[in-house]
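This part of the workshop introduces the protein records we will be handling. Getting from the letters to the tokens is the skill we practise here. An example says more than a description, so a record of this kind follows:
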Amino acid sequence: MKIAQIVIGLGFGDEGKGITTDFLAQQHPESVVIRFSGGQQAAHTVMIDDKKHIHSSFSSGALRGLPSYFTEHCTIHPTYLLNEREELIHKNGNIELIIHPLAKVTTPFDVLYNRKNVKNLEHGTCGKGVGATMKRNESPFKLFAVDLIAPRTMLIEKLKGIANYYGFEEDEEINNALQDFLEAIDKIDWKIEDYEYLKTFNHIIFEGSQGILLDMDHGIFPNVTFANTTSKNAFEICQLLKIENIEMFYVTRSYSTRHGSGWMSNEKSLPLKNNEEETCTFNEYQKGLRFGDLDYDLLNYALKLDEAYVVAQKKNLVVTCLDQLKEKFKIENIKINFDAVFGSYSPYSKDFKIID
């Protein structure tokens, strides 16, 4: 029987989806890890002994040796992908990446627009062109993964159209970025395959991006991500693959976080400890990571919302950063029953424990 495990963040992102995915990858080394939303803006950290990797253009099973698959709902940026690929090679990770033909491709023009558009900066952006890519692909000026293996003259014409779409004129900054972009494309052995590829696996791990509270349909506009961050996409792929045995892993930190602008409940300064491995540090686009006490009402809201998108046989809760809590996690404040509640007290998935 084919089995799918789906990892979903319950907050605004940064909950611990990377460590949770690694936990599942460690148990199921024969699996493939699927990204079904977001793209190169992800920063999913995995630590194995003395090795550490921040997964963006590869799924969070790569450091442990599992292959990655990016669906049509994801974005890819060849230059970022190439750079991370070289990092993974150095760390003996798995660089096997299969991409759906209709995954969206981020170009240098998308990144520059993302970083220079005043509204984007006000609403919050990570500066990697993901939102601009998704928005552009609603226009006639689309670019898909399959276009990367099209004749070069055709790709160049599409890139010219995208530059015109944004109103960019040729200059040194654009020419240098475009040169790096085309060189990266040439250095990668592209594996473009549709969902038939996934039928060769009996166990699949779906790795979510960001969190339910940033979902494009359910977050507070305009401070949302241009993606469905619920189980929606993953469950639709499960139905396509005729997978009925689905297990959920809902992830939250033991406190609230938000990296970027927008509403946040219970926000306040927290005296954190043992957080030297924090990935979400200050950057010029999202600024600093914001903190607050855990909002159990928001957790219940996110859980109830996701029930509208997925039918699961098992549901688990994962609470990360438990070493920050002065008191016990209040599982009694959660209104649904879980098959298991896992806790993490360190950045290492080997330290996961059942806490309920």
Remarks:
- The chain has a mean pLDDT of 91.
